[in-house]
Specification:
22% helix; seven-stranded mixed beta sheet; globular; Metallo-beta-lactamase, Chain A; alpha/beta; binds fe (ii) ion
């Protein structure tokens, strides 16, 4: 039974007024979970580079040596870019989908995968636990596994990969989120929500049999069409939202206008405490 949850933003694209923490395009969240007589620490994503999360963790009094597990949400550089150097400092299991090292690019060609030289080094490590299925990594904390795509709005746009040497549209099946069981409800942690945040939410609610009450992450609505934005807003009504990274400022502001104080724009050094 989880007694307390503390989420600290180690990397986001934003570091506003009076914040000494560094910002960089990317995501990294430190998640501390307290139970009756022990605690666990998870690092969800590693930003674009280790320097930022190392610096910010010192500033925020977070001891990276006490991390029990790392989760990589998907194989983009802004989520897995800090992993290689992190693993030179700490030796912990890393949970991820088995395809995070595939080719990843936009067209016109722009490589957005984990840096290739990092991949060479990472493939030699034995830290990885690869799974396509939901998995309970510490008590009450589940990875999503592959998220079923169930609506016509949440489409992956302009992302490509290679299959047998051919360029194909990338469905981002590696996109992995976390579901933290608060007892009555779920705290959902997402990286970029490439699987679609409504799909991700519905999948978690089915797995754990309870509703999502909080979401932190990037919603990847930065270039979304109007119908997708409206669909997302309708489906996230009533949830506490902590939005950052690739959500898009225009979209964050629309959420704030519609839902008021239940929506926050997060930034490097932002902290959330939940006592279920
Ligand atoms: Fe991202
Ligand atoms: Fe991404």
């Amino acid at each position: 039974m989880i007694r307390e949850l503390n989420v600290k933003v180690l990397c986001d694209d934003l570091a506003p007024f009076r914040t000494l923490a560094l910002a960089q395009h990317g995501v990294s969240y430190h998640i501390n979970i307290r139970y009756d007589d022990f605690e666990k620490n998870i690092l969800f994503d590693t930003g674009s580079s280790y320097q930022v999360i190392k610096y910010n963790s010192q500033l925020m009094n977070i001891d990276l040596n006490r991390i029990d597990a790392v989760v990589i949400s998907h194989g983009h550089y802004d989520h897995g870019g800090g992993l290689r150097d992190l693993l030179n400092d700490i030796n912990v299991p890393v949970f991820a989908h088995p395809t995070i090292f595939r080719e990843n690019f936009y067209l016109p060609y722009l490589y957005i995968g984990i840096p290739r030289d990092h991949i060479q080094d990472l493939k030699k490590k034995n830290n990885f636990v690869f799974t396509r299925d939901p998995m309970e990594i510490v008590p009450g904390v589940w990875t999503s596994g592959e998220v079923p795509r169930e609506n016509r709005f949440e489409i992956v746009e302009n992302m490509f990969t290679l299959e047998e040497g051919k360029v194909v549209r990338d469905q981002m099946l590696d996109d992995t989120s976390l579901y933290i069981d608060l007892g009555e409800s779920i705290f959902l942690v997402s990286g970029c929500s490439h699987a679609g945040i409504v799909n991700i939410k519905n999948h978690g609610e089915r797995i754990l049999g309870k509703r999502v009450s909080h979401i932190i992450g990037g919603l990847h609505l930065i270039n979304a069409k109007e119908d997708r934005i409206n669909f997302t807003m309708e489906n996230l009504a009533g949830i506490e939202l902590y939005l950052g990274h690739c959500t898009g400022e225009r979209v964050v502001n629309r959420f704030i206008e519609k839902f008021g104080d239940s929506v926050k724009r997060i930034y490097s050094s932002f902290e959330i405490r939940v006592i279920p």
